[in-house]
Amino acid sequence: MKQVDLKQMRKISVIWGIIMFLLVIGVTVIGFVYKNETKNYKKFEIELVDKAKDYIAVNNLNKVTISELKEQNIIETSVVNEKTCDGYILKEDEEYKAYVKCGNYKTRGYEE
């Protein structure tokens, strides 16, 4: 009777080991996919700040929208990862920060 219990315990242990391994692999893959997708949005935020600084300074503004930058031909497109982005760039003190919303992605602190 004990022999059967040990065999069953080994089988259950192996099954749980495989399940845990697959879970770890799955979470890792999801993390890499998320990081790769958000990398393009972060790059777009940096590009917006770089291109908006002069426009904000010349026009003595504290805020400029992505649509305004497009209208002024300062940026060519507001599409990232095949999603149209909306947002703005704020100047607070001497720091600039881009806030964008592109599909499901949204910069922390973005206000509509």
Describe the structure.
The structure is a single chain. With 112 residues, the chain is α+β, with helices and mostly antiparallel strands. It has one domain. The protein is 56% helix and 22% strand. It has 2 helices and 5 strands, in the order αβαββββ. It has helices spanning 2-58, 66-71, and strands at residues 63-65, 79-80, 83-92, 95-102, 105-106. Strands 1, 2, 3, 4 and 5 form a 5-stranded antiparallel β-sheet that branches. A hairpin with a 2-residue loop joins β3 and β4 (95-102). The longest helix is centred in the first third of the chain and has 57 residues, at 2-58. It starts with a helix and ends in a 6-residue tail after the last strand.
Total of helices? 2
Number of domains: 1
Head-to-tail CA distance between termini = 67 Å
Could you say which overall geometry the principal axes of the C-alpha atoms support? rod-shaped
The helicity comes to 55-70%
SS content category:
alpha+beta
Radius of gyration: 24 Å
Number of strands: 5
Q: Which consecutive residue ranges, at least 5 long each, have pLDDT under 50?
A: none
Order of helices and strands: HEHEEEE
β-strand percent reads 15-25%
User: Biggest β-sheet: count, sense, barrel?
Assistant: 5 strands, antiparallel
Calculate the mean pLDDT score and round it. 90
